[in-house]
């Protein structure tokens, strides 16, 4: 019984810190207006002079089909390498319109290079450039 109470207390602690710790800052929408991107500026972590970790929330105004389900929100924990122009995904969670969700941890070396965006507006595949600029310029 005592073990269950300790487990519940620890669980409640983590739930409360997660719920209160997020401070989502809107970065922009894609050119269609369907996808909105936010970063949790409360939990930005500079793990070195050139590596930054951040939670990113993506909201889909029109849910995006993934296999037989439709995603209306995703959360991802990412590590950006400012000097190298690349990032990797550390954790990804998808939330579907039917109320279910999936989470996964990608392979350790899933590096992706950021495609620079030369336009003022955000295009669907260039959110990473905006995220990288926000994170990497903020720490300087």
Characteristic terms for this protein:
Lipocalin; 8-stranded antiparallel β-sheet; single chain; alpha+beta; 140 residues; disordered N terminus; 23% helix
Count of helical segments? 2
Strand residues, percent: 35-45%
Structural class: alpha+beta
Beta-strand segment tally = 8
| Gyration radius over CA | 17 Å
Proportion of helical residues:
10-25%
Mean pLDDT value: 79
Distance between the termini: 51 Å
**How many independent structural domains?**
1
Would you give the CATH topology?
A: Lipocalin
Shape: globular
Report the uncertain regions: 3-19, 118-125
Name the CATH architecture: Beta Barrel
Q: Can you write the helix and strand succession as a string? A: HEEEEEEEEH
Name of the top-level CATH class: Mainly Beta
Largest sheet: 8 strands, antiparallel
Please describe what this structure looks like.
The chain has 140 residues and is of the alpha+beta class. It has a single domain (22-138), classed as Lipocalin (Beta Barrel), CATH 2.40.128. Helices cover 23% and strands 43% of the residues. It contains 2 helices and 8 strands. It has helices spanning 2-21, 127-138, and strands spanning 24-29, 35-40, 45-46, 51-66, 69-81, 86-96, 101-104, 112-113. Strands 1, 2, 3, 4, 5, 6, 7 and 8 form an 8-stranded antiparallel beta sheet that branches. A hairpin with a 4-residue loop joins strand 5 and strand 6. The protein is globular, with a radius of gyration of 17 Å. Mean pLDDT is 79; it is low at 3-19 and 118-125.
